Amino acid sequence: MSSSAQKIAEAAEFLRGNGFDGRFDCAMVLGTGLGRLIDDLEAPVSLAYDVVPHFPQPSVSGHSGRIIAGRLERKRVLMFQGRAHYYETGDAAAMRVPIGVIAALGGPPLLLTNAAGSVKLDFRPSSHVIITDHINYSGMNPLLGDRSEGRFVPMAGAYDERLRKKLKLAAIGSGVTVNEGVYMWFSGPSFETAAEVRMARTLGADLVGMSTVPEVILARYFGLRVVALSLVTNIAAGVGIGAHTHQDTKTVVAGAAPTLRKLVHAFLARLDEV
Ligand code: HPA
User: Fold this and answer.
1) Closest listed residue to residue 256, CA positions, set 107, 90, 83, 123
2) Residue of 15, 37, 64, 247 with fewest CB within 10 Å of its CB?
3) How far is the CA of 116 from the centre of ligand 1 (A)?
4) Nearest to 227 by CA among 172, 180, 176, 274
5) Contacts (Cβ under 8 Å, ≥6 apart) of 20
């Protein structure tokens, strides 16, 4: 067994023994400031990342680092409040153990959420975007150094079409406007220059951000169905006016949290519909 497989097995074993046993209907990674969704869970079981073997330690404000199991809309949900980013560690595989654990705990569909910058004026701050595809502009990959055959992960259709459709129907059903778009992964932590944002737009991106893509690659590697939702926190550099800060991200996220909450509830409610 590779050491990474062993770490995942140990983390999953620990979690199963601490209230994370049984079957899950959905797993979610909650991005910057979106962690309050855990308040909606019934009968929650919660552990800090630092007590779970081999889990990463997020260091960004707005990412607290807890794994929580509970019920929402009559579904059993596994939530990851806080992620470890490539820019924190220099390790693009920082989320390998948590994503691998989802597979080890039965492999439910995975919903990733993030905060992102928009490269076009019609995707306004506080609006939501279902990610249809991505461009990995970081030059990095979480599977670098992996020696298994499985590393050659096909990435066409990585963002599950059926889950995207459910998310779209959930948005329509709950009166939330969503757009669809392509997300381009920059390593961060510095924000993009105006020229980089122009390049992103020219290359076909709608959103820029510093997360999610490595998790999607890992999720596909582990055979999980995955869907991702961005909350636009700002218009990216050079497109609008003024500079964007991490504080702006947190402020917009706080304001938009109730809409996201509504959307997630509606998505879970229709998860078992065909
Ligand atoms: N760029 C990169 N990541 C981001 C941004 C941005 O403009 N906004 C929120 N996350």
Assistant:
1) 123
2) 247
3) 4
4) 180
5) 45, 47, 67, 69, 78, 105
Q: How far apart (Å, rounded) are the C-alpha atoms in residues 135 and 111?
A: 19
CATH topology of domain 3-270: Rossmann fold (3.40.50)
pLDDT string in tens for the chain (274-residue length): 568 999 999 999 999 999 999 899 999 999 876 777 888 899 999 999 999 999 998 776 655 689 999 999 999 999 999 889 999 989 999 999 999 999 999 999 999 999 999 999 899 999 999 999 999 999 999 999 999 999 999 999 999 999 999 999 999 999 999 999 999 999 999 999 999 999 999 999 999 999 999 999 999 999 999 999 999 999 998 887 767 788 878 888 888 888 988 999 999 999 987 5
- Report how far ligand 1's centroid is from the alpha carbon of 57 (Å): 21
CA-closest residue to ligand 1 atom 3: 209
Ligand 1, residues at Cβ distance < 6 Å: 115-117, 186, 191-192, 208-210, 233-234, 236, 244, 249
Distance CA 4, CA 119 (A): 37
Residue 36: strand, helix, or coil = helix
CB-CB neighbours of 3 under 10 Å = 8
Contact 167, 268 (CB under 8 A): no
Q: Which residue has the least CA distance to atom 10 on ligand 1?
A: 116
Token pair recorded at residue 48: 């800090």
Mutate to test the pocket of ligand 1, among 124, 192, 229 (most ligand atoms within 8 A of CB): 192
- Please state the domain extents for the chain: 3-270
- What is the value of pTM for the model shown? 0.95
